[in-house]
Design a protein that fits this description.
By secondary structure, the chain is α+β, with helices and mostly antiparallel strands. The protein is built from 9 helices and 5 strands, in the order E-E-H-H-H-E-H-E-H-H-H-H-H-E.
């Protein structure tokens, strides 16, 4: 493994990436979470998101496309950008739940099921170079920060973090899209099983927003 330094949103990050063929690298990955510099609550919450979105138990969560319709081979960008996979038609009830007129399609892909439009937005604003596992997890944390969930995750306030994030991820309790979702009790159980802590079990921290604009300073960070 080698370290690759990126400047993303003005923040110097250290991403631990595996050298060599990208497709072979991603197919060989399972779901690494061993990085002492990444907060345990953040790791657990990202794992919980993968589990809620149905990617956690797949051979490579980062290669999943919506409906298990395709396995990503090209990680140079979102598969709906590269043209490898252009999305899957949704049931009419899902379209109506999302405020769309049928027919509509989902381009959700990767461990956190990023839509093409959302991914392109984060890619362009944060200078993300590819759709690798590290890039997907980095973008997910940026999304959680922008949704106002990140500080709650750090503090162990799982309920508030889920409330903030549920507006984007349809599988989280409280989302109004009408798609299948987990209960809070299920989310909490899985989050705890992955090493997350709740607020009453650890000292709450103050806001991390001071001096930060448009991004979380993650320091040393590895794909989750």
């Amino acid at each position: 493994m080698k370290k690759k330094h990126l400047i993303v949103g003005g923040i110097a990050l250290v991403l631990l990436l595996i050298a060599g063929d990208v497709a072979a690298w991603n197919s060989a990955l399972s779901n690494p979470v061993d990085d002492g510099d990444t907060d345990a609550n953040v790791k657990a919450f990202l794992k919980m998101l993968q589990w809620c979105e149905g990617t956690f138990n797949q051979p490579n969560p980062y290669a999943v496309c919506y409906g298990y319709d395709h396995v990503i081979q090209d990680f140079s960008d979102h598969p709906a950008v590269t043209g490898e996979w252009m999305g899957k038609k949704l049931p009419n009830s899902y379209c109506y739940g999302a405020g769309l007129t049928p027919p509509c399609y989902s381009t959700a892909a990767g461990a956190y099921q990023f839509l093409k439009s959302t991914w392109v937005d984060f890619r362009d604003r944060y200078g993300i170079e590819d759709f690798s596992p590290a890039s997907q997890s980095y973008a997910c944390i940026q999304a959680l920060d922008e949704l106002g969930a990140y500080d709650f995750i750090i503090a162990g306030n799982l309920q508030s973090a889920i409330n903030k994030a549920s507006g984007y991820w349809a599988s989280l309790p409280g989302n109004q899209a009408g798609q299948p979702q987990r209960t809070y009790a299920q989310c909490e159980q899985f989050y705890l099983s992955q090493g997350g802590n709740l607020a009453d079990a650890r000292q709450a921290v103050g806001s991390l927003a001071s001096g930060r604009r448009g991004g979380v300073n993650l320091g040393s960070y590895i794909q989750l």
